[in-house]
């Protein structure tokens, strides 16, 4: 399955799979500003005009960067970034699941974002694979995430990677519309 996530798939129709020289590395606190920029641009590309006031408008960029600095300092959070000559073009975080019904064996991927200028070039797949590796390194046996029902692009992506919905849903309280999110889970004991 993970082998299927290679960046350049020559047979895919009508998509520019332009090759980019890219690398993955662990994030540092100094990456907070670039990570925030990718996060905001990707959320804007997916939700602006579709979800009211999301991403939150306004000038609080410094507050968002500060929140990323705190995340990047947390001991139980791994963050991996994808870089090209443009700098950071994507990132993923992984941490223990905070769901009440999750056992200690379940990790969660709370964020996976690629800058829209770099979509469909394999960065999402590479970051997801890195997240799987980080979760396995920490001894987790399952990796979960929550994805909004309306986010078809991400749902297709997660399906293509091997995640499947486990039936759990919740109302996302970060948005005014209180949109429905589904939990997707990947077994980490069947990835070889
Ligand atoms: C979801 C996301 C991370 C995918 O990143 P990406 O770098 O574009 O993904 P990849 O290039 O690795 O795509 C891997 C496969 O996923 C599927 N896929 C990805 N985007 C797709 C789309 N828009 N439509 C259909 N299939 C898609 C394809 O099967 C693709 O393989 P292919 O390009 O060889 O056909 C990216 O779209 C993104 O940042 N979205 C906004 C943020 C977001 O919604 N994050 C998830 C929050 S839960």
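-> sequence recovered:
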């Amino acid at each position: 399955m993970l082998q299927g996530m290679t960046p350049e798939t020559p047979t895919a129709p009508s998509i520019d799979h332009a090759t980019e020289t890219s690398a993955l590395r662990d994030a540092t606190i100094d990456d907070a500003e670039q990570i925030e920029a990718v996060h905001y641009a990707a959320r804007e590309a997916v939700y602006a005009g579709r979800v009211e006031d999301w991403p939150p408008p306004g000038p609080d960029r410094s507050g968002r960067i500060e929140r990323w600095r705190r995340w990047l300092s947390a001991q139980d959070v791994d963050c991996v970034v994808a870089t090209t000559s443009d700098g950071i073009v994507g990132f993923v975080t992984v941490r223990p699941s905070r769901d009440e019904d999750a056992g200690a064996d379940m990790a969660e991927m709370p964020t996976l974002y690629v800058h829209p200028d770099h979509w469909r070039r394999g960065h999402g797949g590479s970051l997801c694979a890195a997240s799987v590796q980080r979760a396995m390194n920490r001894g987790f046996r399952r990796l979960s995430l929550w994805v909004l029902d309306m986010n078809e692009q991400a749902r297709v992506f997660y399906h293509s990677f091997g995640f499947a919905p486990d039936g759990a849903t919740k109302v996302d309280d970060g948005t005014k519309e209180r949109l429905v999110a589904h939990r997707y889970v990947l077994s980490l004991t069947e990835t070889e």
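The CA atoms of residues 44 and 55 lie 6 Å apart.
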